[in-house]
Structures are given as structure tokens and as C-alpha cells.
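Can anyone check this?
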Amino acid sequence: HTHTHRYIYIYINILYILTYSILFTCIFAHSHSLTLAHMVAPSPSRAQSSPTVLDFLDVVKYPPALTYVLITFAILHMLIAVFLTLSRLEEQPFTHFLWTPLKVYGTSPLFYYIMHLVMGAIVALIIDSQKIEGLAFGWIYPIWIGIVILLFPMCRWYGRFKASTPPESVWRFF
């Protein structure tokens, strides 16, 4: 009986989260469509065309924009609902090897963030020291993927280290 109540509670939470996701998406669509309706065409060739799907999805993070926050919250709430649902479908949730990267990076998010900035700065120094005038845009994603892959063992080590420290340890913050 208690087991059934637990599942009902979980599914109500999932519906609640999905409702917020849909609400954020609708508010985003409405507010961003108003923005696009008043959008000034940047060039004469652009003046004749109507806004595209990419124009609609083009939101800016800086300066802070309501549309960015809304679409980000909508996506995050949708992902939370998906992960909650997936965790209830398996007997032992998130034990499949495909979940390992999410668990590794998820146990050390601040460490990952700080280290990816450090690694990015190191890569920039290497590129600058080689006197490379400009880096082709096609190289950005391979470099980023390389940094993510290089950080995986470091984050795994840090996650294990963090788990071995007492709960009041300052290392738990990273």
C-alpha cells in the first residue's frame, strides 16, 4: 500500500514538472514571438524575408533576457521529468554504463567548471604560443570534445576523493 502511494507521489511530481516545462515553453514562445514581430531587419536582403525557426530559437544570455531564462527552465524541467521517469522504469536506476559520464561529471560539477576554464586557458596559450593567427571555427568542437574527454578521469578521481571525505569537509563544495 505504501509502495503504491510512493509511485503515485512520483508520477504526480513528474506531471507537475512537465506542467512547468510546458508553461515555460508557452511563455517563451509568446514573449519571443512578440520580440520577433518587432525585430528590425539587419540588412536589405533580410528585410524581405520573414523570421525563420533559427531566428525564433536565437536567444541571448547576456545581457540577461527573459526568453533565455524561460527556454532554459523549460528544457531543464523536461530533462528532470525524463530522468525521473527513467529512474522509475529500471529496477536499479542509472546503473547502465551509458549513465557513467553523467554520474562522473554530476558528482563534481564545480570542479569540472573550474578545470574546463583552466584547460581552455592552457589550450589558448598553446595556440597563441604557436603564433596561429586564427583558428578555424571547425576546430572549436574537436578541441572542446578533447577537453571534456581529458577531464573525465580527473572528475572521476575527484568524485571518488570527494565521496571519501567527511560530510563537513570543504572539498564537498567542489
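Reply from J.R.: I decoded it. The longest helix spans residues 2-37.
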